[in-house]
Amino acid sequence: MNGGDTSWDEGRDDERDQRIAELEAENERLRKIRDALIVRVESGSSHKPEPYAAFEHSVVLAEQVRERTEALNQAMEELKDSNKALSRAREEAETTRQRLSDAIESIADGFVLFDHQHRLIQSNSRFRSYWRHAGVNPPEPGTAIVDMKQQALTCGLIVEEHSHPDSEGVVFLLSNGRWVQMTERPTREGGLVVLYSDITDVKNSEMARRIKALEESERWIRVVTDHVPALIAYVGADLTIQFCNKVYEAWYGRRGESPLGKHLVDVHSPELYERLMPHMLEVLDGHNVTFEFEETGERGEERYMLRSYVPNFDEQGDIIGFFVLIRDITERRKTALALEQAYDNLERRVKERTAALTGLNNQLRQEIGERAAVEARLRDAKLEAERANLSKTKFLAAVSHDLLQPLNAARLFTSALQEQSFGPKAEGLVRSVSTSLDDVENLLGTLVDISKLDAGVIKPDVTAFDLRDLLNNIAREFRQMAVAEGLTLDFVPSSAVVESDSQLLARILRNFLTNAIRYTGHGRILLGCRRQEDHVLMQVWDTGPGIPGDKLSEIFQEFKRIRPEGAPADKGLGLGLAIVDKISRMLGHEVTVSSTEGRGSVFSVRVPLGKLLPKRPGTDESRLPLIDQGLGGARVWVIDNDHAICEGMQTVLEGWDCQVVTAVSLADLERQLDPASSPVDVILADYHLDNDETGVNVVAAINGRRQTPAPVVMITANYTNELKQHIRDLGHVLMNKPVKPLKLRSTLNHLIRCGGRVGP
């Protein structure tokens, strides 16, 4: 703009100078005419004309001189007025130019003006200060915009550059640590105005929010691991401890110092370090390692530890560290040694007494007494083992609930974050947190399941059911996972009726499909059934790399994974097929596998056919959850004694356009509304509430007051068949923790559209 005003002022100055020159020339011409007329009059008297003619001629000449003089005076006045107007215009132009410069200088942002050829005309001091801070002279007027950008990159003024199609302009990180956003606006003459706005405070605020979210996620992960009764750590490739839980820190913390960040050689005694070194070298070579060692604590106590090392691979397949899981098996070891010693003593004594049986009847009676005493001790040992098993069962029930509560809340908050619109970096962080929670959930779920199966906590609930719903739901669930990995999942439906536990059978099929997707690089996966006389053969086919024949029996062992050479690393623990083996033995179903290297594998489970019982009134087994088409302002009550769960559930449900009321108890709900008359579409209730209150009792009290009972979704971490049957008899929907947001949304949509009751 400043350059355009200067050109206009110069044009006006040239026009006035030209006008002044023309007036001066005209004035000079008139003077010459006047002088010529005077000379002519004076010279005419020498010719001595007639007096009257001479007088008349002089009068005419005088009149002409007077007119020319008046015209000359008027032109001189106009010239003076023009000079005054020109002076005023110059003063106004200078004032306007100064005001414009002051306005540009007063702008808090960096300001740069380019002409129609995109060459620098003017900039303010804020823009020039960026260059001076970097130790570089600001660009001179006339510098092309391309050259200016190249100079900024070359001299180090610009450290980072970020752009996004949805952003208003490009964002730069300058050498002084400040963030600026560049916006460009064209001028009317074809030039360009560029503003550099300082957004450092906005960037710092955004970074603080991200750091806070990551710290909250890390806190939840640490809470989970600190409550696991095992020593958990992560060791980098340089053998330094990068993470450990409280149990690990309590055992290996020497003199009250945390082992976190220390090299293993500084954490373990030299003797123990030398014993561990071969196993660490093996895991850093890419192998899973499990072994047992006797260790001595800082106070001299001896413990027997079962160690498992699992390598961690990066995206390129390189080992960047390994996970450490250590379980204290001292008591189990002592019990085993005591039983072994008791059996050895018993066998030795039986042989001694048998040799002297012939003539030593009295000694025989004594031997019988001793054997009876040994048997009593064995019975006592058995009772002690059963009590230990019962204690383990109670612990598993408690740990399932306590571990899954914060994990459930984290899952809900992460799902709500994924539905919000952030920048690409923030969305990447949210996806990373969600992936980490998936890994933690899978790890904890798998470890708890293995422990429950070993402890005999899980009891099969064998009934006759139609395979149609089970297979449809599993196929729908894994089809999206397969597409995400670039695979095709084909599904052959079946309406066969089988005798089994539907949830445990679904777990077997899910583990088959998870392995197929994990190890199949490209191609397709097939899920289907084949009838064989009085059985159904349920199979999962894949086009993966196959399994060597001598490894087929090893894949069902705990922490055993068969990974082909060159295949990408995965985060599994090698427990999926071990769980399949334990469940199939519990159900009495035969599991087989056949494989051809380079072509693929087939995993099969053989399930007996069954016969459906007559349907109970009010049930509709053929109905499937409908595809979610929006909840459209559904009114939902959430009852949970955990405030974090309430907050997370409210965030997720309101993101689905639901009207949500949360309460920690029935009394809390009554303080907010009248449960008997307030409108509600679905009630979400946690089974375990405070003060020995259950969600079943709360919803019973609510529906007992209402004219029309509201549909209920009961949420719990209790997996017992008794509770499942109880909820089924009440006509409620049962969901286990941690709740999957997609499954919850599908269930709510189904309940609202179909009237709520799904039958037992």
Automatic annotation (TrEMBL):
This protein's species is: Marinobacter salinexigens
- Looking at its record, which EC class is this enzyme? transferase
- Tell me the protein's name: histidine kinase
Task: Fetch the CDD domains from UniProt.
Answer: HATPase, HisKA, PAS, REC
Give this protein's Gene Ontology molecular function annotations: histidine phosphotransfer kinase activity; phosphorelay sensor kinase activity
A single Gene Ontology CC term: plasma membrane
Task: Answer whether the UniProt record assigns the keyword Kinase to this protein.
Answer: yes
| Domain Histidine kinase, first and last residues per copy | 398-611
